[in-house]
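Sample pair:
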Amino acid sequence: MSIKIITVSRQFGSGGRSIAKQLADKLGFDYYDKEIIENVALETGFSKEYIERKGEEAPGKTVFSYGFESQTIPGIMNGMTTHDYLWTAQRKIICNIADSGNPCVIVGRSSDYILRDRDDVLNVFIHADMPFRTDRIVRLYGESEKKPEKRLMDKDKKRAANHKHFTDLQWGYAPNYDMSLNSGRIGIDKCVEILYEVVKNS
């Protein structure tokens, strides 16, 4: 079956979001990133800013951080913690996007795992070395009190812990994806070209 959905997981600062957007534009596919956040906000009542911070990241840097998360009051959010409630809402929205039948590119949010039973999905992981990523986040987001290397490591550890908690899979482990591309070595534009050719020839 031809590829109709591309999921793009990415290390912070690797350019995965830019690759996903350029690929969607080049293919003429729908693109879902902030759009998922907006839909989750409508579904849950949480602010978009809160969902953007919490929707892909664990409370701390390890899966054990979930054990310290406050439990909700029975009857509120079906008794689920905030992270469980967000995961459930995101999963529902991602499944609805996939079931719509419209070709699309979806960024992050463990969409590769959520859509694992479909045979029309290409799961991609974008990574890069530390110098490439530190340079990129400083150019895009500016300096902060934290060193860029620390910002990168903290964010990636929280993404990895979140993915492990909900999927029991290792985030970024190449065999868990169909393709793993080093944007620092290959270049962002070349990554787009490679993925475009794979999809068009599927």
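The beta strands are 5-10, 30-32, 104-107, 121-127, 179-182.
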